[in-house]
Amino acid sequence: MDNLIAVVAALLYLVALATIVPGLVHQTGIRVKAVFASAVLALAFHAWLLSDLILGNSGQNLSILNVASLVSFIISVAVSGAMLRTRLWFILPVVYGFSAINLLAAAYLPSTFITHLEQDPKLLVHILFALFAYSTLTIGALYAIQLALLDYKLKAKVALVINPNLPPLMMVERQLFNIILIGNILLTCTLLTGFIFVQDMFAEGKAHKGILSFIAWVVFSILLWGHYQKGWRGRKVTWFTVIGASLLTLAYFGSRFVQEIILR
């Protein structure tokens, strides 16, 4: 049953993606209602799948693929909601494409990492902060890549710049730093709750998570300071954002990949 749900969700994501891409390529109008309807249905099936995969056991199955699918779901919800107010058409195909891949992988390559968060609500708070911080800052990285693309097209005077489906450069930059600010606040809360609630945060095999997360926090903090105090823009912003998001990815998924996939 889970496999069927995953296929339906993936197909709905692909329908949304296929509705967006022609408008970006041919600079034509995008049917917003059709994209939104497909996305909502895809998210509904995605949520159904996640409930089966994560909550279907005695405890919570937070395997690396389930968590990756959960992160994709959170990001997809956020950008789908923002779709109605801002032109995120460059980001959406990437987000929906990864969501489809992640949910199919979680359904067809099942793995197990059972936790019992109901016995430790403080740890649940820490994990929720971590999930939303990572999701928010990943969206920030996608925004930064979009910003770099728009900046390149403007400087190269490429016709794609006038594509009505792409947002103005200054609007993307303003949204980017709002996202990074929110994400860094959530990351701060993640680190604080980790120090307070996770007793073995720096135990052997886990210390790198905290260290890499803290380095990512420093990277994003320097970026925010550089922008608001020194007026940083352009490539420097893109590099800082992508490096920070990459550090967070290594902090969690790097070790879990080794534990669950390589050493299994």
UniProtKB/TrEMBL annotation:
GO BP: cytochrome complex assembly
Matching Pfam families: Cytochrom_C_asm
One Gene Ontology MF term: heme binding
Domain of life of the organism encoding this protein: Bacteria
Any one GO CC term of the record: plasma membrane
Cytochrome c assembly protein domain segment(s): 38-262
Record key words, sorted: Membrane, Transmembrane, Transmembrane helix
Membrane in keyword set: yes
Transmembrane segments: 34-55, 62-84, 90-111, 123-145, 176-198, 210-227, 239-258
Record-given protein name: Cytochrome c assembly protein domain-containing protein
InterPro entries tied to this protein: Cyt_c_assembly (IPR002541), YpjD/HemX (IPR052372)
